[in-house]
Every structure is written in structure tokens, then in C-alpha cells.
Amino acid sequence: MTIEAKAFETPIREGDARILIRIRSILCEVENNAPDFVQVEKDEVSLKIDLQEVKDFTIPEFDQNFPVTFKAINDQEVIFNFGKECIWFDIKADNVKDVWVADLNFTLNSSNPRYLAYYIKEVEHQFEWLQPDMKTGEVKTMSVSKKKYKTPRISGRESFSATEVVRCADMLSRAIKKIDIRTRGAYVKFNTDKGKLEPLIIGIADKLGYEVEPLRKEDIANMEASGESVSHSIFLKRNY
Prior knowledge:
Elements (H helix, E strand, L loop, with lengths): L2 H7 L6 E17 L12 E6 L14 E10 L2 E6 L4 E6 L3 H5 L4 E5 L6 E17 L6 E9 L14 H15 L8 E4 L9 H11 L1 E5 L2 H9 L6 E5 L4
Antiparallel strand pairs: 1-4, 1-5, 1-7, 2-3, 2-6, 3-4, 7-8, 9-11, 10-11
């Protein structure tokens, strides 16, 4: 029995719902530090899937690494195909909305991490919500949602000095003190060295439970007209 067939033939317990994820092609950029010795075509690559936006429950199926197969390479871009037909799991029906609106995080892992690094650009994937038919009990697709992969704001390519890390931590410390308890946020000024330090600021803030967003140019101009010098917003995460 195929994975997909099992998803439609296995009964769903009362109060549960089933989410089926189809993953097609994976487009990524590759860095190869030893092209004379290591080839992407022969690399054993696996895909790690995560649903970080959902904190109230875990999905055991995401604890594993899924194999992907090499399809094509063009200059520095590579296409992989997902090795399985699909992935499916059961959750409480009350949690369907949380999963349905969340975005999946994908990471490609090389068997030669010392030489090869993959940076995902696009992942063709969709969610299907399965439920048993009220009359026949047959498991059917109730809804389909095509997903768009969101490229991480921190790609993993960046490198920063210890001085820059300390500097950003200091800026964040001062920004956090400006947060209004009532609104759980504030508008602040960060010196990002023309954007170089922005990924580091955002990354540190994320680990601390805050969301940092750069403001639009028009918003900055409007606030400067009122005498405020700002560049970013910082807010406590809702699930913090």
C-alpha cells in the first residue's frame, strides 16, 4: 500500500483531522567548496521539515529527515525532488486552523556538510485537509491549500564578528526597554550599517522571543516629521 493510499484508507479517530502534505520540486542555490572532489549529483541529501509557528503541540512525523533525489543543476542552482509521495499525520480537529495557516520551514542537509551547503529558494508544496464523509465514512479531501515557501530572512551565509554581536545585543537591550506593556511593542532606531547588521538583529531578537520588522520608507518619513527617529518596530511574539 502506498503512503497516499494509506492516508485515505486508514480510519480517522473521532475528534481528529488528517493533514496530508504533498511536496514536489525543491529549488535551491548551492555552495561547493571542493568541486574537484565532491559533486552535487552524487551527494546524499535529506530534507528537514519544521513547523515552528505552532508551539502548543508537536508533529512526530517531522522528527525525521526525508530523502530527496537530484533532478537537475544549472550553474549554482539545483533542483531536487521529494523522495516520498507525501507526508500525512493526524491532529485534533481544533488544531487544524493553526497548522493550516502556518508556514513550513525547510532545510536541506548534505552528507558532505564540510564542502556542500544548500540554500532553499522555492519549494512546491500544498496541504490537504482530510476528513471522513458523514454518510459513507470514506476519507476524503475537504480542502486544498497551495503554499508559497517564504525564504528565511537569515540565510545562514552571513558571518559576524564578536564585536558586531555585542553591538547588536546592546541595541536590542535598549530597544526592549522601550516596549510599551500595553501594546507589547515599540518603534525604535537601529544602526544596521546599511543593512549589514539587520539579519543579526532580527536573529537575536527572534531567539529572545521578539519580532523585529524594518519600517517602510513612508512610515519612517511620517514619524520623522513628528520628531521621532525610527527605523524598525519591535514586538513581543504572540506565543511568547
